[in-house]
Design goal:
Elements (H helix, E strand, L loop, with lengths): L6 H11 L15 E5 L2 E4 L4 E4 L2 H4 L8 H11 L12 H16 L4 E7 L2 H16 L3 E5 L8 H6 L26 E4 L14 H13 L4 E6 L14 H12 L2 E5 L24 E5 L10 E6 H9 L12 H16 L2 H19 L6 E7 L2 E6 L24 H11 L2 E2 L7 E4 L7 H22 L8
Parallel strand pairs: 3-13, 5-6, 5-7, 7-8, 8-9
Antiparallel strand pairs: 1-2, 2-3, 4-10, 9-10, 11-12, 12-14
Helix pairs in contact: 3-10, 4-10, 7-8, 11-13, 12-13
Bound molecules: pyridoxal-5'-phosphate.
Pyridoxal-5'-phosphate binds next to α5.
Length: 466
């Protein structure tokens, strides 16, 4: 236990006064972090943990990256807050880096704005789509996640709002859910979907478009790879969905808060499908490796042009904050100078190779999918079906301790690795881009042992873990 801090007192204050998310107070596991460094963090009791989830698939360059912190320190010598009506050095440098150096001056992208969260970016993107088209409806995928303020909450495609203390088997959705203006479309088929012909999700989506009337639709919002849900779509899905947007004349809003800035081994997820470019892109997390709260919206040249020529009453106190922009500059300059995208591809390939080698040994591995350093494992029971039947539509009711991802989280933690998932049957492996081969070996060995425990519970006749 670190003597510099009274963690017992801190825990009492945290438990008494902080408004926690996702876990009920009685279930809350107090995980005190003493410090963070590179690919690891240290708990209050001194345990060092490999962060194989980059916190929330977010801290892409690991914790306290020296290049990002150096730029932040320099910026702090000159700036605190500069309101958006004025300009400063870092806003210009961050915008130039994103539009010219990362995406390319001759590409689709016109302008960028910097916010303080991914949710802000998503809200701005959908408002822009509505203002640009003069239409109200946003199509949104089942199983998707877009953030936690009201608009993005209403867009998300899985449940889970409140499971009250009195009954852990009921779920209370936000009243009015699903709401006016956001229409759900089916989730993408997974990568290994076997049937031939047009994908069923696309057939159903086209029927929905025709039923609503395309003249009412502002845009469709997608995650290139569902982050919370953990689905990498079938290869035909994104081209077909964007094809529908083009055919019926509405916008494609590409939510890359989790996938953007390198996670999939491309700067952006949309680059997994050559020839596809979004109309509006929402980003966050990886743009500054979460050194400070961040979100970005990037508009195509055509869309940016309309807004830039208009008087557009929009903005937040935090827009383009100098310190946030400095962390973007530090992060992206380092990533560009050190060819980090290539590093993500190479380390992602090693991770995939190690996971593929686990598959023959572990009948609980139903599917491995993903790209770069975002690999997802779907766990199944001995009948080959999801262990928790609601799977990606889970409302997180009942005994969470029986969820396979929680079992894996607990077992890998015993071996010094932070690794788990969100929806109950999916494991999300999203280490920092700075992960080493030894780190990957440590994580996969811990996972190997954890899957023995899952199988002892859910696979009849499985050997007892030792
Ligand atoms: C795809 C996606 N969109 C939006 C968000 C919301 O971003 P933030 O948590 O920064 O508000 C997230 C967060 O995980 C996300 O994964």
């Amino acid at each position: 236990m670190n003597k510099a801090r009274d963690w017992d007192q801190l825990e009492r204050w945290d438990r008494s006064y902080y408004l926690h998310s996702t876990q009920a107070a009685a279930e809350h596991v107090y995980t005190a972090v003493e410090s963070m460094d590179g690919n690891y963090f240290t708990l209050a009791d001194g345990t060092r943990m490999l962060d194989f989830q980059s916190q929330l698939i977010s801290d892409s360059m690991g914790h306290r990256h020296p290049a990002i912190h150096a730029e932040l320190t320099r910026a702090m010598e000159r700036y605190g807050h500069v309101q958006f009506g004025m300009a400063h050095e870092y806003r210009a440098r961050a915008a130039k880096l994103i539009i010219e150096d990362v995406i390319g001056a001759n590409s689709w992208a016109g302008r960028v704005r910097v916010f303080s969260s991914g949710t802000d970016a998503v809200e701005c993107a959908t408002n822009m789509a509505r203002l640009y088209t003069g239409r109200s409806v946003i199509l949104t995928q089942a199983h998707s996640f877009h953030g936690m303020v009201m608009g993005s909450t209403m867009m998300r495609g899985y449940r889970n709002n409140l499971t009250p203390d009195a009954d852990r088997n009921t779920v209370r959705d936000v009243p009015g859910f699903p709401p006016h203006g956001y229409i759900p479309i089916p989730p993408p088929e997974p990568e290994d979907h076997a049937a031939n012909g047009t994908l069923p999700s696309i057939v159903a989506t086209e029927q929905i478009i025709q039923a609503i009337g395309p003249e009412n639709i502002a845009g469709v919002i997608t995650e290139p790879m569902l982050g919370g849900g953990g689905t990498f779509p079938h290869s035909a899905y994104m081209p077909a969905l964007v094809g529908l947007a083009r055919k019926y004349g509405f916008l494609w809003i590409d939510d890359e808060v989790i996938t953007g800035f390198g996670r999939l081994g491309e700067w952006f997820g949309y680059q997994c499908w050559p020839g596809l470019t979004p109309d509006i892109l929402a980003g966050g997390k990886g743009v500054n490796s979460c050194a400070l709260p961040v979100g970005v919206v990037i508009a195509s040249k055509q869309i940016a042009d309309l807004f830039e020529k208009a008087r557009w009453w929009s903005g937040s106190t935090w827009d383009g904050h100098p310190l946030v922009c400095a962390t973007i500059v530090g992060n992206l300059e380092y990533m560009l100078a050190n060819n980090i995208i290539q590093q993500v591809r190479q380390r992602g390939a090693y991770l995939k190779e190690r996971l593929d080698a686990l598959k023959p040994k572990h009948p609980s591995i139903g599917r491995i999918s993903g790209r770069g350093l975002f690999q997802v494992i779907d766990l199944v029971n001995d009948k080959g079906t999801p262990i928790v039947p609601e799977d990606r539509f889970s409302a997180f009711t009942g005994d969470l301790g029986a969820h396979p991802n929680v079992i894996v989280y607990q077992e890998t933690a015993k071996r010094g690795v932070y690794l788990g998932g969100f929806t109950p049957n999916t494991l999300k492996l999203g280490p920092p881009f700075t992960v080493t081969q030894d780190d990957i070996d440590l994580a996969v060995d811990a996972l190997d042992a954890a899957l023995d425990v899952v199988e002892a519970k859910y696979h009849k006749g499985a050997a007892k873990p030792h």
